[in-house]
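ok, trying the design again with the full structure, not the truncated one.
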C-alpha cells in the first residue's frame, strides 16, 4: 500500500463496535496505546476488518483512516 500520509501506525484490531451506519474500529498500536477510528460499515465490510487482524491507522490532519494490505 502506498499513500502520501506519513503518520502511519501499524497495529492489531482489538475491537469493532458496529452502529446502524458507522462503526468504531479500535487498533492496538503497542505500548498500551489504542487508536479509535469511526468509519462506515461499508468500509468495515469492504476491508474485511475483524478483531485480531493487522491494520494501519493512517493519520492526516484531523482525520484518521484505516488501511490494510
Amino acid at each position: 500500500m502506498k499513500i502520501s500520509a506519513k503518520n502511519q501506525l501499524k497495529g492489531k484490531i482489538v475491537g469493532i463496535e458496529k452502529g446502524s451506519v458507522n462503526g468504531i474500529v479500535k487498533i492496538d498500536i503497542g505500548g498500551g496505546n489504542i487508536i479509535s477510528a469511526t468509519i462506515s460499515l461499508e468500509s468495515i465490510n469492504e476491508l474485511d476488518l475483524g478483531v485480531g487482524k493487522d491494520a494501519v491507522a493512517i493519520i492526516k490532519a484531523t482525520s484518521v483512516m484505516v488501511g490494510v494490505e
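Keeping the full-length input from now on. Residues 17 and 24 are 5 Å apart (CA to CA).
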